Amino acid sequence: MPGYETSDATLAAIAGLLGTTAERVRPLPQGGANHVLLLGDDLVLRIPRTEQFLPDLAKEAAVIPYALRAGVRTPEIVAFDDTCSVVDVPYMVLTRTRGTDLACLELPDADAERLYRQVGRELGKLHRLTPDTAPALAGVPADDGNADPWALTGRLLKDGWIDAETARWLTGWFDRLSPHLPTSPPSVLIHGDIAPQNLLISPHTAQLNGIVDWGDAEWADPAADFAKMPLTGIPAMLDGYRQETGQESATGTPTWEARVLWFHLTWALGRLAQPVPRPGERHWTAPPASRLLGLLRFFTSAPPAPWTDLS
Question: Is the pTM of this model over 0.85?
Fold first, then answer.
């Protein structure tokens, strides 16, 4: 599929439309779907790499205003044009959120815990948006929620990725988790990629400045928004989430912990069956074994209650 070229002439034209010059266009860390560049000091330009990623950019244009109205810390849209009528590529321009993405930082434990609570509170704000409260987002896709971890475990056994004893152990783990899961989880607007590289942090204060990259937004079980962060940060994220939403405490029935663990474990097994390394990708789950090792690391680090009761 042909790509959208960020030629000098195209960048100069977009810069001119936004009141700056081509000399003030500078590259930023690249995402998988978009070319990302600074326009001057205060604006960020995003151009999809190929036509395949254009629907995600259009989705962001619809979702971001709703996230802002919900009080979520995220950049504002300055311009969006998917017609290619002015320049030869579709593009989006956003206000710049200053900071360093979390994937590039090594925060002390106390700072990291405080930051994760902030992220949890932001998710609590976002997840108030439902198909009823945001009907204009009807075009946002809905997750079908049909992942079957028992069937996945069976396939891994049949295809030789795991042994029979491990399959029985995993099946038993899912059996123990399943009573904690809601029969019909609520459908809310999720970001879909709450991950370290999409969280911009002030490195001096460890404050969350903004959440970026809304291309994976969808209607889904809110627990799915906790599945792309390492498990080590999830207890603090859930604390912040509960503070924002007033939901049950961690000392009650561990419904939330079980739901989040269900996603982490299911997705870790799914990645096990796709063992091709993807060097150079910044997402912590890109290496095939990262999710499984993350589970191992978490449960061997004396996690707080009620997590140990779910292992």
Answer: yes
pLDDT tens-place string over residues 186-225 = 999 999 999 999 999 999 999 999 999 999 999 999 999 9
- Torsion over CA: 209, 213, 214, 216 (sign): negative
How far apart CA 73 and CA 237 sit, in angstroms, is 16
Structural domains in the chain? 8-95 (3.30.200.20), 100-310 (3.90.1200.10)
Q: Which residues contact 179 (CB under 8 A, 6 or more apart)?
A: none
* Three-class SS state of 79: strand
Q: Which two three-digit tokens encode residue 104?
A: 């590039």
The token pair at 28 is: 């930023």
H-helix segments, the chain = 8-17, 54-69, 109-126, 149-158, 164-177, 234-245, 255-272, 290-299
254: exposed, middle or buried (C-beta count within 10 Å: 0-12, 13-18, 19+)? buried
What distance separates the 2 farthest-apart alpha carbons in the chain? 64
**Residues sharing a CB contact under 8 Å with residue 177, sequence separation 6 or more, in sequence order:** 258, 261, 262, 265, 310
Q: Which residues pair with 80 in a beta bridge?
A: 92
At 65, list the tokens.
Answer: 């205003």
Please name every residue paired with 220 in a beta bridge, in sequence order, or none if there are none.
Answer: 188
Q: In this predicted model, what pLDDT tens digit does every residue of 288-306 receive, in sequence order? A: 999 999 999 999 999 999 9
DSSP string, 12-38: HHHHHHTT--GGGEEE-PPPSSEEEEE
Name which of 182, 179, 185 is nearest 221 in CA terms: 185
Q: Which two tokens stand for residue 122?
A: 């932001």
Q: Which amino acid is at 278?
A: R
Q: How far is CA 169 from the centre of its chain?
A: 29
Phi, psi (rounded to 5 degrees) for 104 = -95, 0
- How far from 178 is each of 45, 231, 263, 270, CA to CA, in Å? 44, 19, 12, 18
| Cα 269 from Cα 227, distance rounded (Å) | 13
Question: Which of 15, 18, 25, 4 has the alpha carbon at shortest distance from 88?
Answer: 4
